Amino acid sequence: MSPNEKSQRLKVWIAFGLVYVFWGSTYLAIKVSVEHITPLMMTGIRFLIAGPVMLAWCALSGLSVRITRKDFWTAAAIGVLLLTGGNAMVAWAEKFLPSGLASLIVAVVPIWVAVVEGLILRKDRMNGLGYAGLVLGICGLGVLLWPKLMATSVLGRMQLIASGGLLLASLSWTCGTILSRHSKLSIGPFAATGWEMTCAGVVNTLLALSLGDQHRTVLTTRGAIAVGYLVVFGSWVGFTAYIWLLEHVPTPKVATYAYVNPVVAVLLGWLVLHEHVDAYIVAGTVIIVAAVALVTSSKIKSGPAAPAHVPACEPAHD
Description:
By secondary structure, the protein is mostly helical. It is about 75% helix and about 0% strand. The chain has helices at about 5-35, 40-60, 70-95, 100-105, 110-120, 130-150, 155-180, 190-210, 220-250, 250-255, 255-270, 280-300. The two termini are about 30 Å apart. Mean pLDDT is about 85; it is low at about 300-310.
C-alpha cells in the first residue's frame, strides 16, 4: 500500500469516527441543554448560530450562497420540517425521556422514508429485505415502548406521550428528507444546509418568543457548553465529515451511520448521564439496528453518491 493510499484510508477512518461519535453524541448534548433552556429556544439559538456561520464560511471559501426565491422557500420548508417539526420535537421529548431511548425511537426514520416512498409515493419500491426490516422495526418499537404502555404513573404516561412526540418528529423528518431528496436546488449542499438551518432558527426563535420561553430559560454554563457542542460538532464538524465521506466512500458504507449512531447514543447516555439500560432497551437496540440495516441495505444501490443537502442533526436520514 502506497503512502497516499495509507493517508487516504486514515482520513476515511477519521471521518467515519467523527460522524459516528459526534452525531451519536448529540442526543446526550440535547438532554443536557434542555435542562434549563426550553427546546424551542435551544434549537433557535443553535441554528441561528450554525446556519449564518456556515453561510459565511461558504462565502469566504468561494462557494456561492446566492439563492433564488423559489429555492429559498424550498430550503425554508425543508428546514422547518427537519429542524422545527423534527429536531425541536426531539429536544422537547428528551425533557421526559432518556437520551438513549430517544435516539432509538428516532432511528426508525429510514424505515418511515422507505414506507412513504415505496408504499405511498411508489417511487422507490422495497424488496423482501425492506419489508422484513419494516416488520422488524415495528416489533423493535413495541419492545422499547412496552414498559411505557404498561406504566400507570404520571411520569410513565408523560414518557409515553413524549414517545408519541418522537414518532411525530420522525414523520416530520421523513417528509423533510423526501422533499430534500426530490428538490433540485441551485446551490451546493453546504450553502443549502446553511439556509435551511438559518430559516429553521428564525422560526424556532419566533415560536419560542411567542410562547414566552425567554422567561423560562436559564442559560447556565453547562447548558451553554451543550449548545456550543451541538453547533460545532453536531452541525459543522459532523456534517462536513459526512459530505466528505459521500464524495470518497461508496454510499452503503456511509449509510452505516444510521444504525451506529443509536448505539453510540445509548452507550454515552449510560456512561455519562447514568441512564438506566434494561432488557427492553438492549433488546430494542438489537432489533431496531437490525431493522434499519435491512431497510437501508435493501434500498441502496452501488455507485457514486450524490451529495445530500439535508442538515446534519439527530434524526437519522438516508
